[in-house]
Amino acid sequence: MSSEDIKNKLTEKGLKVTPQRMAILEAIYNLKNHPTAENIIDYIKKMHPNIATGTVYKVLGALVDNRLVKKVKTENDIMRYDGVMKSHHHLYCMESDVIKDYVDEELDELLQNYFEKKNLPGFKIEDIVLQVKGTFNK
Amino acid sequence: MSSEDIKNKLTEKGLKVTPQRMAILEAIYNLKNHPTAENIIDYIKKMHPNIATGTVYKVLGALVDNRLVKKVKTENDIMRYDGVMKSHHHLYCMESDVIKDYVDEELDELLQNYFEKKNLPGFKIEDIVLQVKGTFNK
DNA sequence: TTCCTAAAAGAGAATAATTCTCATTTAGAT
DNA sequence: ATCTAAATGAGAATTATTCTCTTTTAGGAA
């Protein structure tokens, strides 16, 4: 991803091309694995020591609004608390045909919560089973 | 869930039975749908106007530590940002045998993120497909 | 039942991530 | 080159949560 490419992405969306926006997009493309705002700020300050943190948040918001970047909620809102839950999933080994049950109540909570907020239009969910495909370490 | 039942749950775990803990557990059992700490605080203050918010957080922590309550991370840590993603899932209608593709990049991010943190021991994940079972509205 | 003590609660300051406010600067259209 | 709406900077404000420290209390022991 060259500077030209990044600049074009901004221009295509009708966003003014500023050094701050260039730096932030570049940081996101270079920092793999879903960087936090803090990761991005730290990264950018190496080259732009004077950028305001408020600016980073504002730019990130603009990038998300314009679908140049996705906001990932590794937990969306605020902590919540609950008492119960159940269900199980499957780990499929692609090398050996082994299928292993996988119980993870935290994941179930996460999914239930996600779909409660998502509210799939026209579909009433009864159960969710994950097919997790991969390989068991030998 | 009676007061006695709630009291027993605390006692079984070796936790002192306090009015605050009783009230918080009762709030969690009555407030469906994963209440937030704020929901719980609001609910409890109807009956216990003087409870300290710090106490609520402390009690919730103790309840989670003692597995009386689960902490659900509708988003775990801090906002993160990314650029790409893909994959698709299936909606299975239990009444009609219809199977519909379901694309949801936000969900994929969520799952990828979840398992990156979870790190299933002995298993290397290649792909995750959700089987979402339910019914299409007629 | 009363006493004792570790544990719990209260009050509010502290912290951390994020948002807001408003004065100043700047990208880019004219 | 000029102009102006948009963007940035600086730091205060906000929000959820944690921490600190003093006071109170649950519940076991005398």
Automatic annotation (TrEMBL), chains A, B:
<keyword id="KW-0862">Zinc</keyword>
<keyword id="KW-0238">DNA-binding</keyword>
<dbReference type="InterPro" id="IPR043135">
    <property type="entry name" value="Fur_C"/>
</dbReference>
<keyword id="KW-0805">Transcription regulation</keyword>
<feature type="binding site">
    <location>
        <position position="93"/>
    </location>
    <ligand>
        <name>Zn(2+)</name>
    </ligand>
</feature>
<dbReference type="InterPro" id="IPR036388">
    <property type="entry name" value="WH-like_DNA-bd_sf"/>
</dbReference>
<keyword id="KW-0479">Metal-binding</keyword>
<dbReference type="InterPro" id="IPR002481">
    <property type="entry name" value="FUR"/>
</dbReference>
<dbReference type="GO" id="GO:0000976">
    <property type="term" value="F:transcription cis-regulatory region binding"/>
</dbReference>
<dbReference type="GO" id="GO:0003700">
    <property type="term" value="F:DNA-binding transcription factor activity"/>
</dbReference>
<dbReference type="GO" id="GO:0045892">
    <property type="term" value="P:negative regulation of DNA-templated transcription"/>
</dbReference>
<dbReference type="GO" id="GO:0008270">
    <property type="term" value="F:zinc ion binding"/>
</dbReference>
<dbReference type="Pfam" id="PF01475">
    <property type="entry name" value="FUR"/>
</dbReference>
<dbReference type="InterPro" id="IPR036390">
    <property type="entry name" value="WH_DNA-bd_sf"/>
</dbReference>
<comment type="similarity">
    <text>Belongs to the Fur family.</text>
</comment>
<keyword id="KW-0804">Transcription</keyword>
<dbReference type="GO" id="GO:1900376">
    <property type="term" value="P:regulation of secondary metabolite biosynthetic process"/>
</dbReference>
<protein>
    <submittedName>
        <fullName>Transcriptional repressor</fullName>
    </submittedName>
</protein>
<keyword id="KW-0678">Repressor</keyword>
